[in-house]
Write a structure and sequence with these properties.
two-stranded antiparallel ribbon, alpha+beta, 4-stranded antiparallel β-sheet, 6 strands, about 180 residues, Nuclear Transport Factor 2, Chain: A, about 45% helix
Amino acid sequence: MKLLFFNGRLKDLVGQRNLLLSFSLSLLLLNFIQSISTLTKNERIVVVPPEVRREYWFEKNRVSRTYLEEMTLFFADLLLEMSPESAPFKREIILRNTSSSSYGTLKSQLLEGEERLKKEHVTTAFHANSVTVHPDKLTAIVTGDLAQFVGEKRVSQSRDTYEFQFSYKLGRLLIESFKLLKGE
């Protein structure tokens, strides 16, 4: 009788063990599949800024058209809205967002511009009229009115077109080059 009872109990335990083993193997397989899908998946991060004009996104190797446009306008404001007092502060922000290969060139351009602003006591104001972006090439062209002031007096105004060349590394959009294409 005891032998029959123990055989029945052993059969139940083996069944429970096999059920638990198959359940554990299923969970291990699901974990493995989830790990593989996480590693191969392109993650898209959608950012909605505090001032909601348009949302933008960026992925591992690409950025959205709106993100490129917003960053171009941000950098254009930093580079072209200058006064002798604000130039050093803006220079530091710009250089923090410049690629290492262009750092020296852009730094010398900015320092020359600062010297000119201080020497001539000039303040500049830029009002963008249009932005054309090419997300596949990470380039943007911004056109706008650049005004120069000495004190309260406007000494010149021109319609200028500038080109930005960017690189995208480790989730950051960095300035590669900034140049005047056309000035009137």
